[in-house]
Write a structure and sequence with these properties.
Rossmann fold, mainly alpha
Length: 122
């Protein structure tokens, strides 16, 4: 199995360097590619912070991307991505929310926005 890092995923999604994008695509299309929540969190951070990609567009491209790879905690990751597109929360907070909803984990936080979301939908 192959694990992808943030830069490999970004080149694939952004296609901003044709050679690297083609190499990334070749690796992904061969299958047995594995991504972690931590790497996807960094992808979200770079797409939003460096490339100013809108949350909805980030959601769209990542949900399509996740169909091509194997992800750790895929259900949690998908809900985290969807939550990120709908709410003004940092991506790690959206992942915590998703762990609460999918796995039933109790989340302890001082973050008022995260607390509000957790309490709204409980």
């Amino acid at each position: 199995m192959v694990m992808l890092d943030t830069n490999m995923i970004l080149r694939y999604l952004l296609n901003d360097n044709e050679d690297m994008a083609l190499e990334a695509e070749d690796i992904i299309k061969k299958g047995q590619v594995y991504v972690t929540i931590e790497v996807i969190a960094e992808v979200v951070y770079v797409l939003k912070g460096v490339y100013s990609v809108e949350r909805e567009k980030i959601k769209e491209c990542l949900l399509i991307f996740l169909k091509e790879v194997t992800a750790v905690e895929e259900e949690v990751l998908k809900l985290g991505i969807e939550t990120y597109a709908r709410h003004n929360l940092d991506f790690p907070d959206c992942i915590l929310y998703a762990y609460n909803k999918i796995k039933g984990y109790e989340i302890k936080t001082f973050d008022k926005k995260l607390l509000k979301l957790l309490n709204q939908t409980s």
